[in-house]
């Protein structure tokens, strides 16, 4: 039964991560010390202290490269840093924090890919791996290790596992 609860807790971490829909109707703002636009390549590079904001989504990095395939809304933002960070408040009001050496955010596909020392944290649960993909539309997360040499690690607090099947009002009261 304990293994079933752990499996269900893993699904809870991955499956209930529902992005704030209003974020995607918001404008995207990028602030940086330097910006280089390469019009022929449909690419803009932002450098030094880069911050991207879209609603509750916030990405921070040393460098961000934005490319557009020509299709409206098909921008891809790739953030690089030591680490680059991603933050969002979900529809349930809970924050999600992530970081890695690079974060790729595909606006149209609503796909976030974190690579290199990737970590995704929601409340006190943490998933770590070499690569983490989060499909916002499908509410699906995939974490992978590096060439089978390492393993993906997920950490839960015992209280979260024990309270998994309790309604939210009972969790707050500690029943």
From TrEMBL:
Keywords from the UniProt entry: Periplasm, Signal, Transport
Domain Organic solvent tolerance-like N-terminal: 29-140
Localization, UniProt: Periplasm
Chief subcellular location: periplasm
InterPro entries: LPS_export_LptA, LptA, OstA-like_N
Superkingdom per UniProt: Bacteria
UniProt cross-references to Pfam families, sorted A to Z: LptD_N (PF03968)
Signal peptide: 1-19
Family, as annotated: Belongs to the LptA family.
Known function: Involved in the assembly of lipopolysaccharide (LPS). Required for the translocation of LPS from the inner membrane to the outer membrane. May form a bridge between the inner membrane and the outer membrane, via interactions with LptC and LptD, thereby facilitating LPS transfer across the periplasm.
Subunit field text: Component of the lipopolysaccharide transport and assembly complex.
NCBIfam families: outer_YhbN_LptA
Name of the protein this chain belongs to: Lipopolysaccharide export system protein LptA
Species in which this protein is naturally found: Aeromonas popoffii
Phylogenetic placement of the source organism: Bacteria, Pseudomonadati, Pseudomonadota, Gammaproteobacteria, Aeromonadales
């Amino acid at each position: 039964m304990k293994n079933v609860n752990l499996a269900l807790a893993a699904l809870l971490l991955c499956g209930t991560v529902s992005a704030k829909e209003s974020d995607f109707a918001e404008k995207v703002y990028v602030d940086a010390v330097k910006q280089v636009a390469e019009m022929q390549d449909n690419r803009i590079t932002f450098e030094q202290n880069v911050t991207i904001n879209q609603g509750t989504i916030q990405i921070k990095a040393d460098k961000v490269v934005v490319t557009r395939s020509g299709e409206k809304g098909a921008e891809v933002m790739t953030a690089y840093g030591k680490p680059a960070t991603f933050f969002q408040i979900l529809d349930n009001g809970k924050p999600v924090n992530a970081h890695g050496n690079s974060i790729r955010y595909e606006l149209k596909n609503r796909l976030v890919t974190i690579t290199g020392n990737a970590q995704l944290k929601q409340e006190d649960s943490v998933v770590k791996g070499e690569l983490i993909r989060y499909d916002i539309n499908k509410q699906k997360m995939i974490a992978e290790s590096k060439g089978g040499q390492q393993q993906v690690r997920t950490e839960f607090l015992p209280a979260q596992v024990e309270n998994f099947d309790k309604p939210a009002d009972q969790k707050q009261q500690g029943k």
